Amino acid sequence: MDGSVSKVNSRAALGGVIIGLYEGWLVGFGMVTGLTDIFQVEARAMIEGLKLAWAHGFQQVVESDNALLVNILQNGLAENNSVAEVRMIHTWVSKNWQVRIRLISRDCNRVVDCMENEARGSLDQLINFFDPPIFARRILEADMHHVLSAKATFSLSFFL
């Protein structure tokens, strides 16, 4: 999940992708919002991703490139946080399912960056993509190849 803020039009875009390890693309989303604080935008992206995962019955690892947000969530500082979006994440993560929050590098978020750059629609209207949009397919294929290669390398070195 990821978000970005435009200084030009005081709007932000957020997006996310739920990807199965072997199935590839499961569902993606994009949204334009009026939030202008990047931390809130990133948190809102995580909320929307959690809602979507819950609605589809996915249990997952949630990845974010926002180190502050991940740190707050991993260290139990979300429940009483002053940012409403962070408290909402805590509520969603506390439901009866397993969610792990993990920090990733910005380079690993290329498909999501692509989704948020193409976010359209009315303000705060979530757009779901049940098939990968054309503009995201090549990046998705490259990322999936990289992830599977990294997991295969890790598995081999782990058992040696």
From TrEMBL:
Pfam families: RVT_3 (PF13456). The chain crosses the membrane at residues 12-36. The keyword Transmembrane helix applies. Residues 2-117 form the RNase H type-1 domain. Gene3D superfamilies: Ribonuclease H-like superfamily/Ribonuclease H. Keywords: Membrane, Transmembrane, Transmembrane helix. InterPro entries: RNase_H-like, RNase_H-like_dom_plant, RNaseH-like_sf, RNaseH_domain, RNaseH_sf. GO terms for molecular function: nucleic acid binding; RNA-DNA hybrid ribonuclease activity. This is RNase H type-1 domain-containing protein.
